[in-house]
Amino acid sequence: MTDIKATKVAILGLGTMGSGMASNLLKAGVPLAVYNRTAAKAQPFAAKGARIAATPAEAVKGVSIVLSMLSDDDASRDAWLGKKGALAAAEPGAILIESSTASPAWIAELAALAERRGNPLLDAPVTGSRTQAEGAQLTFLVGGPAAALEAATPILEAMSKEIIHLGPIGSGAKMKLINNFLCGVQVASLAEAMAWIERSGLDRDRALAVLKSGAPGSPLLAAMSTRMVNRDYTVNFLLRLLSKDMLYASNEAAACNVDLKTAETSRALMETAIAEGYGEQDMSSLVEPLRKKK
């Protein structure tokens, strides 16, 4: 079993998810290097014992596991392949883990480039949001070689409640997009239902109690409805990133000859909300433009 206190790790990206993941690795005693494009977000981790890197290339020097948690394909590409990128500087044999919600096409491209350099890649996006990241309760959805996953498992366990190996490279990315597609459609339909309930004359609390305890009920519906009622849009998951995920999902499904019509209509609602200034708020803020609509 790998001794995590002797395993040097780098995390690229300290946003909503990456910051919680990095904190849990430091709590577990992992020697950690961190990089964030906005350097100020990285500085608090120095006090926790992390090595602060000015570039992705600097972050990966001397480490055996590199984990990226970034916003989209473009940010991931820049961190791995851009000027002073991580891939060219990675140590021979270091395990690379892409935990961003990325397109399977980009994962396949990155995996091929990594293989040429002798670095195994795991695509390992997560389910859960800020609360789960902070509490080491994420679920990793993993695609890639079993041997690399076995070696990386102790590190992933320090950040998660479950690790699911779904198959070859790209499997994690595909599963994550399906997961987020279903979540996105549910958030959009709940936002519409909330606006409907509030205009209908029904007692909102009683109506929501019926929905939560009935067939439509789910952990997501319960959490999102509470946030919508309280108008608490503190970020657990950015609305603009959910919209991005819906676009990636539509494109990936189209490659399988599946037309995600519900994704298209849900994303249209999200883009309207983003245009009205809600993109940097939690995805539950999707209800606000619907509340305002006359």
Summarize the SSE layout with pairings.
Elements: E1 9-12, H1 18-27, E2 32-35, E3 51-52, H2 56-60, E4 65-68, H3 73-81, H4 86-89, E5 95-98, H5 104-116, E6 121-123, E7 126-127, H6 130-134, E8 138-143, H7 146-157, E9 160-167, H8 171-200, H9 204-213, H10 219-230, H11 239-255, H12 261-278, H13 287-292
Parallel strand pairs: 1-2, 1-4, 2-3, 4-5, 5-6, 8-9
Antiparallel strand pairs: 7-8
Helix pairs in contact: 8-10, 8-11, 8-12, 11-12
Tag the structure with descriptive keywords:
three-stranded mixed sheet, 13 helices, 2 domains, six-stranded parallel sheet, alpha/beta, Rossmann fold, N-(1-d-carboxylethyl)-l-norvaline Dehydrogenase, domain 2, 51% helix, 294 residues
Short account of what is shown:
The chain has helices at 18-27, 56-60, 73-81, 86-89, 104-116, 130-134, 146-157, 171-200, 204-213, 219-230, 239-255, 261-278, 287-292; strands spanning 9-12, 32-35, 51-52, 65-68, 95-98, 121-123, 126-127, 138-143, 160-167. The protein has 294 residues and is of the alpha/beta class.
Task: Provide the structure class.
Answer: alpha/beta
Described by the principal axes of the CA atoms, the overall outline is globular
Average predicted local confidence, pLDDT: 97
The CATH C-level name of the largest domain is: Alpha Beta
Low-confidence stretches: none
**Overall radius of gyration:** 20 Å
Helix and strand pattern: EHEEHEHHEHEEHEHEHHHHHH
Helix content: 40-55%
Compute the number of helices: 13
CATH architecture of the largest domain: 3-Layer(aba) Sandwich
CATH homologous superfamily label of the largest domain:
NAD(P)-binding Rossmann-like Domain
The N- and C-terminal alpha carbons lie at a distance of 61 Å
Query: Strand tally, please?
Result: 9
Order of the strands making up the biggest sheet: 3-2-1-4-5-6
Strand content: 5-15%
Instruction: Please indicate the count of domains.
Output: 2
- Within the CATH hierarchy, at the fold level, what is the topology of the largest domain? Rossmann fold
How would a crystallographer describe the biggest sheet?
Answer: 6 strands, parallel
